Amino acid sequence: MTARLLRLRFLGLLVAGIWIVLDQISKTWAQSNLMGHPRFLFGHVGFELIYNSGFAFGIASGSSAIITIFGLIVSAGLIFALWRTSRRTIALGIGLVLGGALGNVVDRLFRHNGGAVIDFIHSGFWQTFNLADMGVVVGLIVIMVGSRQRQVSSSSNR
Predict the structure, then answer these.
(1) What is the DSSP letter of 126?
(2) Average pLDDT of the residues of the chain
(3) CA–CA gap between residue 53 and residue 33 (Å, rounded)
(4) Is 119 a catalytic residue?
(5) What is the largest CA-CA distance in the chain?
(6) What kind and span of H or E run contains 119?
(7) Is 133 a catalytic residue?
(8) Stretch 35-51: mean pLDDT, rounded?
(9) Which of 78, 90, 116, 119 is catalytic?
C-alpha cells in the first residue's frame, strides 16, 4: 500500500470523524436551546427541534432498529469503498456520507430519544434536517462531481 493511498483513507476517515463530532455538537445545542422554543431567522427559516424516528422525510417512522442496521451496513460499504478509491475527491465525498450516516446512527444508539434522530434546521420550503443529513447530500454530490470529472477527462483523452 502506498503512502498516497494511506493518506486518502486517512482523509476520508478524518472527514467522517470531524463531521460526526460537528453533527453531535450541533444536535446537543439544538436539544438544549430549542426545546419548545423555535428560533426563526426570517419567515419560516431557522431552527426548530423535531425528533425523526424514520428515514429522510419521516419515511418508515417507528422503524428505528431496521434503519440503524441499514445505516451500519451502508457505513461498512462506505468504508470498503473508501479503501478501494484512489481519488481524493471521492475519498472526501465518502468521508462526508460516512460521517452523516454514522452521525444519525449515533443518535439512534446513544441518545435517549426512542431511536429517533434530532433534526433542527428548518428551511421553510424543505423538510427539517440536521448536519448529518447535509453530510450525506453534499457527500453524494461531491462523489458524483468527482466521478463525472474522471469520465470527462477520460473521454477527452480518447
Answers:
(1) S
(2) 91
(3) 21
(4) yes
(5) 60
(6) strand 117-122
(7) yes
(8) 93
(9) 119
